[in-house]
Design brief:
Strand content: 35-45%
Radius of gyration: 24 Å
Shape: elongated
Number of domains: 2
Number of strands: 20
Distance between the termini: 79 Å
Largest sheet: 6 strands, antiparallel
CATH class of the largest domain: Mainly Beta
CATH superfamily of the largest domain: Galactose-binding domain-like
CATH topology of the largest domain: Jelly Rolls
Bound molecules: calcium ion
Structural class: mainly beta
CATH architecture of the largest domain: Sandwich
Number of helices: 4
């Protein structure tokens, strides 16, 4: 066995494959976790657009041999089982356009939640790299690249981690021309998308009301840190193990017996826990998220809660969170 390995290594050296490319190959091979749960794509290494899990575009081979997928409005490229185990702060594509173009990156489905939106000027048929900030994502997901405006060809893509972005920002002073983002303001005509509300909004809700009334339906997307995602008539927040949502100054003047949470998730045993004032110690309530469809589940509260508190919602996995409300304590009705 050992001998055979040496022969293979010798052969690789003989044909000029260096140690670095062996490492690169090795890190793209599924590890133990992946082997157990099926093959996964490593998005942190460049993925060729043409090696996909389905597309409605056109296969393109350039004169220099570059292969790509051509997309016009409404066409998409799909990748299954992409393992975002290191999260994603930015996404980068190498693409060319023949007109101002918008490419939307979505999760799960071609009309699923928006992760990122590229607004690209006309590159006049020349491939360039573009990167945009994205909403964070974790674990195994399907992603779609959907052309919503224009005419483009995508050569490849990759996910960029938060760590890589931070390292790039530290060295940015040495290389002032590092930004490759398209100058959107030059091409205002690109913004023809009607679905502006679908854009993830990570900005914190700037104006929390003085006191929140917990005994009415409260939109989860109004929580601090929530983001707002649209699907049909439902607007919802996104909560995950990386994202804690907060309701400030909740007035439990009628006490608290239970909290109802309208949620959905794709995962088994995804739970939301509710904490008061900080996320240390024991949660006051806990409930499983509904699998697939938005449904309300009730989390009973055994501890006594009254007065004004900050309420923290903590999840152990990705959950879409539509609304929440509280029931007064039993004493209140007596
Ligand atoms: Ca390619
Ligand atoms: Ca909602």
């Amino acid at each position: 066995m050992k001998k055979r390995f040496r022969v293979v290594l010798g052969l690789l050296t003989a044909i000029g494959i260096g140690a670095s490319s062996i490492t690169a190959m090795a890190s793209d091979v599924p590890g133990r976790w992946e082997m157990e749960s099926g093959p996964c794509l490593n998005p942190y290494m460049t993925k060729e657009a043409e090696v996909n899990f389905g597309d409605t575009g056109t296969d393109i081979t350039e004169e220099d041999g570059t292969k790509a997928v051509g997309l016009v409005k409404g066409e998409y490229i799909k990748f299954d089982d992409v393992k975002f185990d290191q999260g994603m702060k930015k996404i980068e594509i190498t693409a060319k356009t023949y007109a101002p173009t918008a490419i939307v990156v979505r999760r799960d489905r071609e009309d699923g939640r928006v992760l990122a939106k590229f607004k690209i000027k006309d590159t006049q048929g020349k491939y360039e790299k573009f990167s945009v900030e994205t909403d964070d994502i974790a674990e195994k997901n399907k992603i779609f690249f959907v052309c919503t405006v224009g005419d483009c060809a995508i050569d490849s893509w990759r996910a960029i981690t938060k760590e890589e972005v931070e390292i790039a920002e530290q060295t940015v002073t040495e290389e002032p021309e590092v930004t490759e983002e398209p100058e959107v303001t030059e091409e205002p005509t690109v913004i023809e998308e009607p679905a502006v509300t679908e854009e993830p909004e990570n900005t914190e809700n700037p104006e929390q009301p003085e006191n929140v009334d917990p005994y009415v339906e409260n939109e989860a997307e109004d929580l601090t840190n929530a983001g707002a995602f649209q699907e049909g008539r439902i607007t919802y927040a996104y909560i995950s193990e990386r994202r804690v949502l907060v309701a400030h100054n909740v007035n439990f003047e009628q006490g608290l017996s239970s909290i109802s949470l309208k949620t959905r998730t794709r995962y088994d045993n995804a739970t939301i826990e509710v904490y008061v004032d900080d996320t240390k110690g024991t949660p006051i309530a806990r409930t499983l998220a509904s699998k697939y469809d938005f449904r309300t589940s009730c989390a009973y509260v055994s501890s006594k809660v009254s007065g004004v508190h900050d309420v923290y919602f903590v999840a152990n996995n990705e959950i879409d969170f539509d609304e929440w409300s509280a029931m007064p304590s039993a004493d209140y009705f007596q």
